Amino acid sequence: MRNVKKVLAATAAVATLVSIAACGSGSDGNSSANKGDADKAELVFWGWDSGNSMKDIIAGFEKANPGITVKFNNTGTAEKTSTALSNAIAAGNGAPDVVMLEDPTVTQFAVTDGLVDLSEYGADKLADDFAAGPWNKLQYNGKPYALPIDSGPEMFFYNKAVFDKAGVDGESIKTWDDYYEAAKKIRATGSYITNLAGTSNDYQPFTAQVWQAGAQPWKVDGEKITINMTKDEGMQRYIKFVQKLIDEDLVDTKTPNWSDDWNRELNDGTIASLTIGAWMPINLMTGAPDQAGNWRVSQLPQWEEGKEVSAEDGGSALAVVKLSKNQAAAYKFIEYMTHGDGAQTMADTGTFPSLKKILQSDSFTDPTTEANKKTNDYFGGQNVNEVLSAAAQRPTEKFQYLPYNPYAQTAYGDEVSKAYSGDITLEQALQNYGKKLAEQGEQQGYTVTLK
After folding, report:
1. What's the burial of 326, exposed, middle or buried (CB within 10 Å: 0-12/13-18/19+)?
2. CATH number of 154-312+390-450
3. Mean pLDDT of 193-218
4. How is residue 77 annotated by DSSP?
5. Strand, helix or coil at 404?
6. What is the pTM of this model?
7. In sequence order, what are the beta bridge partners of 195?
8. What's the fold here for domain 41-151+315-360?
9. Which residues pair with 273 in a beta bridge?
10. CA 153 to chain centroid
11. Which of 113, 158, 206, 247 could form a disulfide with 273 if both were Cys (CB 3.0 to 4.6 A apart)?
């Protein structure tokens, strides 16, 4: 009953996508009884298609598996997909066999028993084949509940022209202390080293940065959740550093990510760098065209000199829905897309890979390919994928997301933005944020400890 309560809470106040939920699997949720025939099935797959590659991937899979057909329903966005899945699970029918989810939402569906534990099909043996960051995000109770499609290691992108004007060598920024010293010099020129506004769009970079700092702002242990937003050692490290940037006017606190003003300031050099996912190059190329040739990418600054700790910002994955009656065939499809030939097709159409054999391949970092040449020209001739590939293979600590991640993102913008507007300190804002998260967890039936 508790799991039902959580599913219903997750779907409250969200419209049902009736047309999508009208097709898919039935209501029998017994996983062992629903494995079906691994070689013969009609699969329903929900997801989005940002690289316009699904038609080719499905055709390749069906050719290799003639007894299986895949019907793809383009659900448009990650939010719409998770909403529709929540509704279908709550209703007990209409769910797909395979679903694409943003990495942070996988835990939400795993903890409410909506997804299949993929170790039943040997997925737990694939850990070493994927970059550690995306793989670690998809574990619940030590079991994989999805396979990663892509990777989003947090990177340090900087505008070399602005840095040169300030007398800063971007490649020499190895630690966050170096970053702070650079921020002061860049501010003296009239630019900001970056922007931080604390909106809901900043939530994913926030989780990536506290992750890299070694923080555990929340822990999920079955029905128990511990919220520790300010007393955790890693959180204290992060709070002290960011508060210093705010107090000394070293970051633009008025411009939110992904706004028109953000693109304008990236394009005119007012914002001189970003710590953001490895998927950012194409967004800089389209959003800041006047800075072609000026941007560079480097590894994320470290909290301790000599370390090589990374974190993930974004990412998506494929899971098998527990209501599916074709689970064995569904797993075969997601393995093909993430670990087999389909993974290469996705990489060839612009998806930043999570599979090590692609990240380490000569073709991925070859500067003479048409796609790489275009990107490298924008980045002043730098071999961008070579830097990104190295980042994706750096070690990461394990990090959990809350089983009500969409709420956590919205509440982050509501509460934490107040620190960036100067109304309260970042520590106070995060304390208030922690209270909101604890209240939400209790409402969903968890036993919550707030520290």
Report:
1. buried
2. 3.40.190.10
3. 94
4. S
5. coil
6. 0.83
7. 252
8. D-Maltodextrin-Binding Protein; domain 2 (3.40.190)
9. 158
10. 9
11. 158
Strand partners, 192: 271
Q: Of 113-117, 292-296, 346-350, 376-380, which gets the smallest average pLDDT?
A: 346-350
Please give the distance of CA 46 from its chain centroid, rounded to a whole number: 18
Lowest-confidence pick of 241-255, 394-408, 411-425? 394-408
Tokens linked to 52: 């316009």
Domain boundaries, the chain: 41-151+315-360, 154-312+390-450
- Residue 157 contacts by C-beta under 8 Å, 6 or more apart in sequence? 273, 274, 275, 276, 280, 284, 295, 296, 297, 298
Strand partners, 72: 45
The reported pLDDT for the residue numbered 350 is: 74
The span from the CA of 117 to the CA of 397, in Å, is: 22
* Helix 103-111 with 405-420: angle, nearest 10 deg: 130
In angstroms, rounded to a whole number, what is the distance separating the alpha carbons of residues 428 and 415?
Answer: 9
Task: Please report, for residues 166, 254, 303, the alpha-carbon distance to residue 187 in angstroms, rounded to integers and kept in the order given.
Answer: 8, 15, 22
219-228, 284-293, 326-335, 428-437: least confident range: 219-228
Residue whose tokens read 């633009």: 252
H or E element at residue 59: helix 54-64
